[in-house]
């Protein structure tokens, strides 16, 4: 039997799926490609949310395991990091709950009839929006705290100018997000899209991207200044301080949220970049801090020959101290109080508008140095902020004493 012209041009993959509306008489047709596209989006988005939640949960457990004793978690930066990771897990759980609720079921979604949807399902979406707002506030606070730690030793005009600009960007981002959350929740409860307030939605996206770009540039500023000052020379891995490691990791890794923030303006099939922007920031900040902690622990280790790598000839001076002194604390003190020259290599963590010699703290008092007047390397603010990492070692005590002498 020869097929008719209609049968020859019929494509079963593009036909409509027809069902009746709420009145039982009105037919509603939905093309199969539209159904397939919706399924693809639902699966890809839920996988995206699940991977984000799993990564943040793993990072949260790592932070809790590495940060010992638990009293160190009371630091503002540690609290913000833990809170951001936990908030991402809760937010993504609520976002996934939407795709499992009757709101996203076939009939309700394609017919527009949500009369059978329980009100509690809408409240879950409202809670997800509120937690998303909380995540923006926590991430902005963590970025602000990190930025302040990096510029607090800069000259006052630069320090307060950058702090004021960062605060303005943060307030704009949080303000637009608050307005967006209110409008979005009202639309969820009314089951109508907020077309009249589309400018608020765009404003929230713009300010969020602006915030990510700003803090990425700020975190990379010290790194760029060091590269320009020293013609591209970076410290070796054996002589990195915790603050230098923090500057490098934060500066380089913050490029990842910048990429995701830029992707929010594109249109990609089965890919949602909006949630990845804040999630990547929540993952990157504690990752940089953990790397800085490991550097600090390595440098503070009594058996590590690179503890005093910043000081020329410190290895030979330390060898004699090890023969005469039994404890690690006395070894470090004896080595530092011997004939160690001043640290004269400009550091990317402390120099801004002044030479390295203008900011130089004293590790030991003149009596302990035997009147030799030996100067210690400049101590950066975040070394003070990370003092709990190696607070049990004598090196940490000497760094804190150097910070006290430098400040007063």
TrEMBL record:
Keywords: Membrane, Transmembrane, Transmembrane helix. The keyword ATP-binding does not apply. The chain crosses the membrane at residues 49-66, 78-100, 120-139, 160-183, 195-221, 242-261. GO terms for molecular function: mating-type factor pheromone receptor activity. Residues 351-378 are annotated as: Disordered. The keyword Protein transport does not apply. Gene3D superfamilies: Pheromone alpha factor receptor (1.10.287.920). InterPro entries: GPCR_STE2, STE2_TM1-TM2_sf. GO terms for biological process: pheromone-dependent signal transduction involved in conjugation with cellular fusion. It comes from the Eukaryota. One of its GO terms (cellular component) is G protein-coupled receptor homodimeric complex. This is Pheromone alpha factor receptor.
């Amino acid at each position: 039997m020869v097929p008719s012209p209609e049968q020859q041009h019929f494509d079963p993959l593009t036909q409509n799926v027809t069902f009746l509306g709420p009145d039982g008489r009105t037919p509603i047709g939905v093309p199969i490609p539209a159904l397939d596209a919706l399924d693809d989006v639902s699966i890809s988005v839920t996988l995206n949310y699940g991977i984000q939640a799993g990564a943040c949960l793993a990072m949260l457990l790592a932070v809790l395991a590495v940060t010992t004793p638990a009293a160190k978690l009371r630091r503002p930066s540690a609290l913000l990091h833990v809170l951001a990771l936990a908030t991402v897990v809760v937010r993504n759980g609520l976002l996934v709950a939407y795709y499992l609720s009757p709101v996203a079921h076939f009939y309700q979604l394609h017919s527009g009839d949500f009369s059978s949807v329980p009100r509690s399902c809408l409240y879950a979406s409202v809670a997800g929006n509120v937690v998303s707002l909380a995540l923006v506030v926590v991430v902005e606070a963590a970025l602000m705290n990190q930025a302040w730690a990096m510029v607090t030793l800069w000259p006052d005009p630069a320090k307060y100018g950058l702090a004021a600009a960062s605060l303005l960007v943060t307030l704009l981002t949080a303000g637009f997000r608050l307005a967006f959350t209110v409008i979005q929740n009202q639309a969820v409860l009314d089951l109508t899209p907020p077309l009249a307030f589309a400018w608020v939605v765009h404003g929230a996206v713009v300010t969020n991207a602006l915030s990510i770009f700003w803090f990425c540039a700020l975190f990379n500023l010290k790194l760029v200044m060091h590269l320009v000052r020293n013609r591209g020379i970076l410290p070796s891995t054996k002589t990195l301080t915790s603050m230098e490691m923090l500057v490098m990791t934060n500066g380089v890794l913050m490029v990842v949220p910048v990429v995701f923030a830029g992707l929010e303006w594109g249109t990609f099939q089965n890919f949602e970049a909006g949630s990845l922007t804040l999630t990547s920031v929540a993952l990157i900040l504690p990752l940089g801090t953990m790397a800085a902690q490991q550097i600090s622990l390595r440098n503070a280790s009594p058996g590590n020959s690179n503890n005093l790598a910043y000081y020329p000839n410190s290895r030979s001076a330390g060898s004699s101290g090890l023969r005469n002194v039994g404890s690690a604390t006395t070894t470090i003190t004896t080595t530092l109080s011997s004939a160690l020259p001043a640290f004269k290599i400009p550091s990317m963590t402390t120099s801004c508008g002044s030479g390295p010699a203008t900011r130089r703290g004293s590790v030991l008092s003149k009596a302990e140095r035997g009147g030799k007047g030996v100067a210690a390397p400049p101590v950066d603010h975040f070394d003070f902020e990370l003092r709990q990492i190696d607070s049990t070692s004598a090196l940490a005590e000497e760094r804190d004493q150097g910070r006290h002498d430098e400040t007063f």
